[in-house]
Amino acid sequence: MGVVSALGEGPEANRKALAEGVCGIGTLGLFPSRYAGVLPCGEIKTTTDQLKEKLKATESGVTRTMLLALDAFDQAVTDAGLTPSRLSESGTALISATTVGGMCLTDELYKDARNATGGSAYLRSYDCGSVALYLQARYALGGVINTINTACSSSANAIAFGARLIKQGLATRVIAGGVDSLAKFTINGFNALHILSPEKCAPFDKDRQGLNLGEGAAFIVLESESTFTGKGKVYGELRGHGNAGDAFHPSSLSPEGEGPFLAMQKALYSADLTPDQIGFINAHGTATENNDAVESHAMQRLFPSVPPFASTKSNTGHTLGAAGAIEAVYSLLNLVYQEVYPALQFREPIEAAGLVPVLSYTPLTLNHVMSNSFGFGGNCTSLIFSKA
Amino acid sequence: MLYIHQSTCISSQHTFGSIDIEALQPSLDGRLHITEPTPPAIPAGVLRRMGKAVKMSVTCALPLLERPATPEGIIIGTGNGGMEDSIQFLNQIIQYEEGMLTPGNFVQSTANAMAAQISMLTANRCYNTTHVHRGLAFENALLDAVMQASENSASLILLGAVDEISTYNDNIERLAGGYKEGPVTNHELYTLDTPGSIAGEGAVMFLVSGNPAGANTAVPAIRTLHTTDEAEIKIQLIHFLDISLPAGETVDWFLSGENGDNRLLKYYTAAESVLSANTGIARFKHMSGEYPTAVAMACWLACHIIETGEVPIHMRKRPTGQATAGPAKNVLIYNNYKGKQHSFILVSRPGR
């Protein structure tokens, strides 16, 4: 697996930061914005030029989103010991996800969408597909290549799609995950919806003021038990997945939490598990008024007793299309190291729910971890990872 | 096997409502714009907030969802879905210098707005997803449907593709050399030996499942690949037909994604070289125009050909004569986007 977030590069650096309760959310410094000093963000402190140099990605038209994806992708395939010849096999699939794509290049896009002549180097880099196409070309990937955009649940769906490809015999191994970079586009969008917090976000806190945007990427390598050669590590099993539409509103969840409830329920069904077997939930927990109230309610509807839970968005910010994949890596770390990490910035529980997230680093015997991702448009997805 | 039960298509041609594809509808200003049909009865407030792509999707999808059966999957492919709203919102950011912005465009700018809107209008809480892999967005949606039909053959799935001509793709595609320079009409698309194609847009929806009952057409096989080598297309197409076509059967019609771009002709020539002399060759980009999910219209046309035996003269590359086409069982579609993303789709009449 591979991950890059405001907490650092690589699973180990991320684990260390999570265990120590580090918050990667701070002042936006990457690009000028009137909200730079006002709205905190989970920014990766490496500049785009530094990333290009470090990753030897000097091709024309490369965006920050492609670079963050490349970083996490390269970590994952190196970690799994996938050689260039393995990568180019027709059984090696890449399922990526992003919501921003190359729209982080606000000014270039603005000009390219209206000027009659003199296009920039990024004409083929704005759409969501650009990221997976870049990785495909760079590694000569030979299998199914796809990009999913279901807003904030995108990369959770990419992982589920990858698992289904393997089950159906349409891929031998799948590199699945997602990416998003901070952009003026999303900062202004979420700000216009009045759901960005002026403080570091406080998931599941009674007085939470909204989310902080973050950026990052993560990819995991999935392989079926029957074809696994025994080379490379095994971090865990993707045991189940569930996808449901909330069918309520374009930008908020239904009060009953039908979508979240159904996604979690379907994931349990597909994993052949009962609610009491889930040892920990990596909640979607964006810290918006709507999400945390609804998610709490949905968890209480499904779980007779809500298991230990927390949202790592208090560490990384909300990384949108990357969130499902980053949190999949964190769920696998929970399982590998049999530990859970503290929720940050939490003070008092939401009155109606009374739920308190995990507040300190805790070693915990874990067999099954659930990871939730809910997106705009009501796209809700829940994944269940199990101990290898 | 994925069976197709019903389909709808909104395009620049007469493909929606009363269908008549014999006479070719001309392009306008070098673009193949859709003829906007009357949208279905939905609340005016909801309709007003919909962009063209969402409106097209909903108009196309709702007639398929009138049956009592509820789909257990809403799967949409789109290359540029939401991009028009993205640009509108971007314009706000720049023009108002990140001031007080209205969130409407931002909310509609995510590519999943179409699938989400369909789920909201039909109160459908089933599997819902959106594939956005540019020129293979529809093919990946199709693959998703194939998998779902295999996982649960009884489940009914709404499968669709949508893309619109927007400020985004029109100007950016033009700057990138995607369209022919100067005034061009769809009548002359294949005769001008120049780079670029013609802009298009459309929405296509299919009601599919793993259950053959009542289905006139099916998709026995789909294959996607990423390459820039035309020799690879030839090798992979031979292999695709070897494993997909039942013994003793031939391809009746080859639906070619040829789009008038002389830089891409070599891929289509390579694919044609694999076919037997008896296979008819037809083209569709003069009807759809070029856009990332144009291949969905080819699937709709393949169903039409199998169901009616009709292959309009303007579509035929060979044979070109007036002879009636006769019944067709197997239609092979080959399409590529920008010479990098390729797909083979076999559409067949199920059974013997």
Question: Can you identify the CATH superfamily of the largest domain in chain B?
Answer: Thiolase/Chalcone synthase
Mean pLDDT of chain A: 96
Q: Under the CATH scheme, which architecture of the largest domain in chain A would be assigned? A: 3-Layer(aba) Sandwich
* E-strand count of chain A: 15
Helical coverage of chain B, percent range: 25-40%
Largest sheet of chain B: 11 strands, mixed
Summary keywords:
heterodimer, A: 388 residues, alpha/beta, Peroxisomal Thiolase, Chain A, domain 1, 2 domains, 6-stranded mixed beta sheet, 5-stranded mixed beta sheet, 12 helices, 15 strands, 32% helix, 18% strand, B: 352 residues, 11-stranded mixed beta sheet, two-stranded parallel sheet, globular
Notes on the structure:
The complex is a heterodimer of chains A (388) and B (352). With 388 residues, chain A is α/β, with parallel strands linked by helices. Chain A folds into 2 domains: 2-223, Peroxisomal Thiolase, Chain A, domain 1 (3-Layer(aba) Sandwich), CATH 3.40.47.10; 237-386, Peroxisomal Thiolase, Chain A, domain 1 (3-Layer(aba) Sandwich). Chain A is built from 12 helices and 15 strands. Chain A has helices at residues 11-19, 48-54, 64-79, 84-87, 106-112, 129-139, 154-167, 184-192, 258-271, 289-302, 313-316, 323-337; strands at residues 2-5, 8-9, 41-42, 92-97, 145-148, 173-180, 213-214, 216-223, 237-245, 280-282, 309-310, 339-340, 362-363, 368-374, 379-386. In chain A, the strands form 4 sheets. Chain A has a 6-stranded mixed sheet with strand order 2-1-8-6-4-5, with helices on both faces. In chain A, strands 9-15-14-10-11 form a 5-stranded mixed sheet. In chain A, strands 3-7 form a two-stranded parallel sheet. In chain A, strand 10 (280-282), helix 10 (289-302) and strand 11 form a beta-alpha-beta unit. The mean pLDDT of chain A is 96. Chain B is an alpha/beta fold and 352 residues long. Chain B has 2 domains: 2-209, Peroxisomal Thiolase, Chain A, domain 1 (3-Layer(aba) Sandwich); 217-348, 3-Layer(aba) Sandwich (Peroxisomal Thiolase, Chain A, domain 1). Chain B has 11 helices and 13 strands. Chain B has helices at residues 44-48, 52-61, 83-95, 104-108, 113-121, 137-151, 167-175, 230-244, 265-272, 285-288, 295-308, and strands at 2-10, 31-32, 73-77, 127-131, 157-163, 199-200, 202-209, 217-226, 253-256, 280-283, 316-318, 330-337, 341-348. An 11-stranded mixed sheet of chain B has the order 4-3-5-7-1-8-13-12-9-10-11, sandwiched between helices. In chain B, helix 2 crosses helix 5 (113-121). Chain B is globular, with a radius of gyration of 20 Å. The two termini of chain B are 15 Å apart. The mean pLDDT of chain B is 94. Chains A and B meet through helix 5, helix 6, strand 5, helix 7 and helix 8 of A and helix 3, helix 4, helix 5, strand 4 and helix 6 of B.
